[in-house]
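Researcher: I'd like a structural prediction for the single chain below. Treat it as a standalone chain; there are no partners to consider.
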Amino acid sequence: MLRTFIILIISMNMQIALMAQKTISYLALGDSYTIGESVPIYENFPYQTVQLLRAKGLQVQAPEIVARTGWTTDELMAGIEKTTLLKEYDLVSLLIGVNNQYRGRSLQEFGEQFEMLLNKAISFAGGKKEHVFVISIPDWGATPFAAGRDRKKIEEEINAFNALKKKITVEKGISFIEITEGSRAATNDENLVAKDKLHPSGKEYAKWAEKLSVAILDRMKL
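Model: Treating it as a single chain, here is the predicted structure.
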């Protein structure tokens, strides 16, 4: 009987050890903000998020990224359909919408297509809503690139897109990471902007990664 008990304890400890060593897969969906346009790949927010999670002792794979500079919601969906992906991921992030606003696409169209993408993200997470994270659209109007443009109008439109994005996200029980207000600090701090004067720098992405990693640890109970 004692021998059986010892074997049971050893088996339980082995299971716990295996769980602790579980490798977490990560799918990042988006556009230039997910790629990290104009910064080294290790400075984009998905990679910085992985590094923060690894620092907590988690075994996290390098992120699999489906994103391209300039993509709108429908173009991201088309990109997903053309990419061979795993059936399921442990973690999925979604950041999309700025190019819909930039191109003057309608808010209604964005809402419909964003909801489809969010449903897709949930599916990639195996239906586990607590494993999906939506990130708000940063305000490119605060960057040097927008000098001479109607920054107030850009801000109002970005706010409207984010309000709808948040509404859809929250109604589905998905975590919404707000980074928009922080992105507006670029107006007074060019160190938060990459050399192209439009996209975030690694310093700005680090702020997003910190928020995302905290939400992941909390929501996924890691």
